[in-house]
């Protein structure tokens, strides 16, 4: 009888512990919907290969912004981990053509809140970006027999960059971010780097429910 009582108590304590942890996590975790855009300059160290700029330019979705979600976990009153995940379509300018690509982007960022209360004021961001290329296309100034070869060999399927930026909350439901980006090794054949910035507006969905 005593063993059964101890087992029941242990089971009850486990449930209480799990519920407490879940409640604590829910209190410290926030999430929402993200809209934004990106503008970058493309530079190359290859002589004779001219590069220009990259910017948000949707062709498939016809939607004029990057679109995705974010999650924000608070470690303390000053520090947290913010992750942006979004779909993007961009147009990249090169010497004789414009290349359009669609991608999924992940930005894990350390968030340092400057104000006295987390997630309710100005904050700094630092971290990295990973970009996974979904597909790519070229303008029609390439001959049909050249397009497939160029498309398959042009972009690397994955590239990354480092991020530094800031953001701030606008009231209870809306916030804004500006995230500087320095990118590496975007193309297969040519040595290129990118420098630019992402601008995001986000809606705090956790505050609506």
UniProtKB/TrEMBL annotation:
Domain Outer membrane protein beta-barrel: start-end pairs: 25-184
UniProt keyword annotations, A-Z: Signal
Signal peptide coordinates: 1-26
Protein name: Outer membrane protein beta-barrel domain-containing protein
Native organism: Mesonia maritima
């Amino acid at each position: 009888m005593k063993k059964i009582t101890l087992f029941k108590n242990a089971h009850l304590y486990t449930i209480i512990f799990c519920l407490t942890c879940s409640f604590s996590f829910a209190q410290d975790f926030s999430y929402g919907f993200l809209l934004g855009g990106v503008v970058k300059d493309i530079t190359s160290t290859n002589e004779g290969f001219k590069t220009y700029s990259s910017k948000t330019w949707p062709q498939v979705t016809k939607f004029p912004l990057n679109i995705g979600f974010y999650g924000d976990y608070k470690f303390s009153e000053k520090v947290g981990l913010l992750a942006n995940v979004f779909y993007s379509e961009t147009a990249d300018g090169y010497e004789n053509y414009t290349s359009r690509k669609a991608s999924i982007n992940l930005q894990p960022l350390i968030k340092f809140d400057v104000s006295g209360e987390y997630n309710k004021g100005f904050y700094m961001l630092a971290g990295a970006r990973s970009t996974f290329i979904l597909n790519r296309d070229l303008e029609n100034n390439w001959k049909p027999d050249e397009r497939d070869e160029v498309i398959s060999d042009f972009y690397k399927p994955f590239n990354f960059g480092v991020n530094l930026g800031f953001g701030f909350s606008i009231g209870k439901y809306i916030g804004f971010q500006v995230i500087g980006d320095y990118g590496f090794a975007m193309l297969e054949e040519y040595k290129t780097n990118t420098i630019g910035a992402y601008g995001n507006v986000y809606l705090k969905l956790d505050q609506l429910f």
